[in-house]
């Protein structure tokens, strides 16, 4: 009996050691992971993932401020979209107004924007993580406005402002670690409405030479150096860029050329804005794959009379794109998938009151017919046709 017992113990030990050997060496023999054989027992792959939410311009304008002055609840505006930001890992947008330091003229008109501090609080309460601060309104209150905006987010939140800098322009600080995935961020604009003096250009991400209005070799080299400064130290590199023409659904030659340049440099995601309407989402494939959002349009806006364009783009001005995607990191290899999107409607009634952002699938006939611009043919058909004609079907998957 003792002999049988010893024999069984030997067999048991052999089985255990054989299993351990198989676990650690299976991939050497078959080129596969052990989880192919024992998926429910053990997995050796290190897998991380992060959910991103991406929106466009936060462009605060006077009609919204006027509604608040008449007693409107400032918690109403984001109440129906906040769910998209509270269940993700990273939320990214473009801050197209500067925030006052208390000594600046407030304005939501005249293409010169300076917001009160409660606007910063709204953005913070929405649970944003990254805000681009490089756009054509970055110099509306000069260097003081850029510093005030940067400091407001830094002092009152965990939001990372990207694209404006103090005397130490160190892009290696533009890094966020989420779920074991390291994200790096850069941001550039074609220029500013109020020219930035030459001695202060270091304080703003520019991709054109302001003296020539063109993308010179010097500025391409600056972009390359900043991309290289981040590329090897992060898993995912995201560039936000303010580019293109306003009021067009189609990216121009400069946008496409710059997107290809970012692809050549190894950028993973390009997030574009400025057109005040949605533009296509595209993949650029090559030695490296780059996902490009040419423009997400306005997320926040409040202009019912867009005097620089006609009916189509006055209506498109009231419409932004919200997109979600998943970034995966498996054994050090990064991939992007599950890209989906939904139009967000900027609603306000015929009295320019009750401002609220509404996901398109919740945009009822009551909202549709009471929108200030319903008389301007801003309706569900316009929204649906615009979305389906601009955004390819592969990116129109449900965000829920």
Structure description:
The protein has helices at residues 2-30, 62-69, 82-86, 117-125, 142-156, 217-231, 253-265, 311-316, 365-370, 380-390; strands at 47-58, 90-95, 98-99, 107-109, 112-115, 130-132, 160-162, 175-178, 181-189, 236-242, 269-273, 281-284, 290-293, 298-300, 319-330, 333-347, 356-359. By secondary structure, the protein is an alpha/beta fold. The longest helix is centred in the first third of the chain and has 29 residues, at 2-30. The protein has ten helices and 17 strands. The chain folds into two domains: 2-36; 47-395, 4-Layer Sandwich (Purple Acid Phosphatase, chain A, domain 2). The strands form three sheets. Strands 1, 2, 6, 7, 14, 15, 16 and 17 form an eight-stranded mixed sheet that branches. Strands 8-9-10-11-13-12 form a six-stranded mixed sheet, with helices on one face. The termini are far apart. Helices cover 29% and strands 25% of the residues.
CATH homologous superfamily title of the largest domain:
Metallo-dependent phosphatases
The span between the termini is: 64 Å
Q: Which oligomeric form is depicted?
A: single chain
Q: What percentage of residues falls in helices of 4 or more residues?
A: 25-40%
Count of DSSP E strands?
Answer: 17
- CATH topology name of the largest domain, in short, is Purple Acid Phosphatase, chain A, domain 2
Residue fraction in strands: 25-35%
Name of the CATH first level of the largest domain: Alpha Beta
């Amino acid at each position: 009996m003792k002999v049988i017992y010893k024999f069984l113990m030997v067999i048991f030990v052999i089985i255990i050691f054989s299993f351990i050997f198989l676990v650690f060496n299976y991939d050497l023999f078959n080129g596969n992971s052990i989880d192919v054989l024992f998926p429910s027992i053990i997995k050796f792959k290190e897998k991380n993932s992060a959910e991103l939410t991406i929106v466009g311009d936060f462009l605060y304008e006077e009609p919204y401020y006027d509604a608040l002055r008449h007693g409107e609840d400032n918690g109403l505006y984001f109440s129906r979209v906040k769910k998209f930001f509270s269940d993700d890992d990273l939320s990214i947008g473009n801050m197209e107004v500067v925030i006052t330091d208390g000594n600046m003229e407030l304005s939501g008109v005249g293409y010169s924007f300076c917001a009160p501090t409660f606007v910063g609080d709204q953005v913070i309460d929405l649970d944003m993580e990254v805000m681009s601060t490089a756009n054509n309104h970055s110099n509306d209150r000069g260097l003081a406005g850029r510093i005030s905006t940067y400091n407001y987010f830094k002092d009152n939140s965990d939001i990372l402002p990207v694209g404006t800098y103090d005397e130490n322009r160190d892009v290696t600080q533009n890094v966020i670690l989420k779920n074991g995935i390291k994200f790096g961020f850069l941001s550039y604009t074609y220029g500013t409405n109020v020219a930035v003096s030459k001695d202060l250009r270091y304080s703003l991400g520019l991709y054109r030479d302001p003296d020539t209005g063109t993308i010179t070799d010097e500025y391409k080299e600056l972009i390359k150096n900043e991309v290289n400064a981040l590329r090897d130290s992060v898993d995912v590199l995201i560039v936000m860029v303010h580019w293109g023409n306003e009021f067009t659904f189609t990216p121009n030659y400069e946008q496409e050329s710059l997107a290809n340049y970012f692809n050549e440099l190894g950028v993973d995601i390009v997030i574009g804005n400025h057109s005040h309407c949605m533009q296509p989402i595209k993949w650029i494939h090559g030695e490296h794959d780059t996902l490009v959002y040419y423009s997400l349009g306005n997320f926040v806006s409040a202009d019912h009379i867009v005097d620089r364009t006609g009916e189509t783009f006055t209506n498109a001005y009231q419409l932004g794109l919200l997109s979600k995607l998943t970034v995966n990191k498996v054994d050090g290899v990064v991939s992007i998938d599950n890209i989906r999107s939904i139009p967000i409607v900027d609603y306000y009634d015929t009295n320019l009151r009750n401002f609220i952002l509404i996901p398109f699938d919740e945009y009822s006939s009551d909202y549709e017919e009471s929108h200030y611009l319903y008389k301007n043919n801003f309706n569900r058909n316009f929204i649906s046709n615009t979305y389906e004609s601009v955004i390819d079907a592969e990116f129109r998957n449900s965000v829920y």
